[in-house]
Specification:
Layout lengths: L9 E13 L2 E8 L12 E7 L6 E12 L4 E7 L5 H7 L6 E9 L10 E7 L3 H10 L5 E8 L13 E8 L6 H8 L8 E8 H12 L9 E7 L16
Parallel strand pairs: 7-8, 7-10, 8-9, 10-11
Antiparallel strand pairs: 1-2, 1-6, 2-5, 3-4, 3-6, 4-5
Helix pairs in contact: 3-4
Length: about 240
């Protein structure tokens, strides 16, 4: 019988800064056991272990690497205040000096193909940290259309990029991602080679994915989709890309 895969190493980190870029977003800067840590590129995701229900037990959740500086070893994460789960509760009360652990290294960053002339980003609030990280890393000479659905207008971020940006903020209805899906169905894609990146609720991601592949004829190689959460499901798996449908 083959040996089970080794558990990724746990790394201890400590909070050194806490801020709120918007009312619905907590940004924490972490330092600690980050030697040789691999951030895996812009918009990558990673595992965070936080205390659960005030006990010694830890809950593992997936979050985006907002920024990583290998020297001197500083990891920035952003927590959307969407619910009352263990990670959100921890972030809402985070203070300098708080400790937590991270598991393994980050996975699945996004860098557009050098031949791409444009990128389209469709996201809800949960994927906004990933979009912001990717946008920051885009080179000059590429155009990027960014459409993000937010709980409220005060949750919009100032996006910084060398790319030519066209940003649209949508305010959510009572149905999660309803306006994002509507916007995706109304889109006309630019001419020339490009790529589409989608990050949002699982069922909505699949609607957008199907439309991109079917009606808009986007190549599967140029379509990057991921479910950041699923309605009525706690801790939805972080490997849901919709590609198995």
């Amino acid at each position: 019988m083959p040996e089970p895969p080794a558990r990724p190493p746990r790394r201890n980190v400590v909070v050194t800064e806490v801020s709120r870029p918007t009312p619905g977003l907590v940004r924490v800067l972490l330092r600690g056991e980050l030697e040789d840590w691999n951030a895996a590129g812009p918009g990558a995701h990673m595992k965070v272990l936080v205390p659960e229900d005030g006990s010694d037990e830890q809950a593992m959740r997936t979050y985006t690497v907002r920024r990583f500086e290998p020297d001197p070893g500083a990891l920035t994460l952003e927590f959307g205040l969407h619910c009352d789960g263990p990670a959100t509760t921890w972030a809402r009360n985070a203070e300098v000096g708080d400790r937590l652990r991270i598991s393994g290294t980050a996975k699945r960053g996004f860098v557009p193909d050098p031949s791409s002339e444009w990128c389209l980003f469709l996201a809800d609030h949960s994927a906004l940290p990933a979009v912001a990280a990717i946008i920051e890393a885009l080179p000059a000479g590429i155009s990027a259309t960014v459409i993000v659905e937010l709980p409220s207008a005060v949750d919009a971020l100032d996006l910084v990029s060398q790319a030519e940006l066209d940003v649209e903020w949508l305010i959510a209805s009572d149905i999660p991602c309803e306006r994002l899906v509507e916007a995706a169905l109304d889109l006309e894609l630019p001419a020339g080679p490009g790529e589409v990146w989608v990050g949002c609720e699982a069922n909505s991601m699949r609607q957008i994915r199907a439309h991109m592949l079917g009606e808009l004829g986007v190549s599967p190689r140029a379509l990057h989709t991921r479910a950041y959460w699923k309605q009525n499901v706690a801790n939805h798996p972080d490997h849901d890309t919709g590609e198995d449908d």
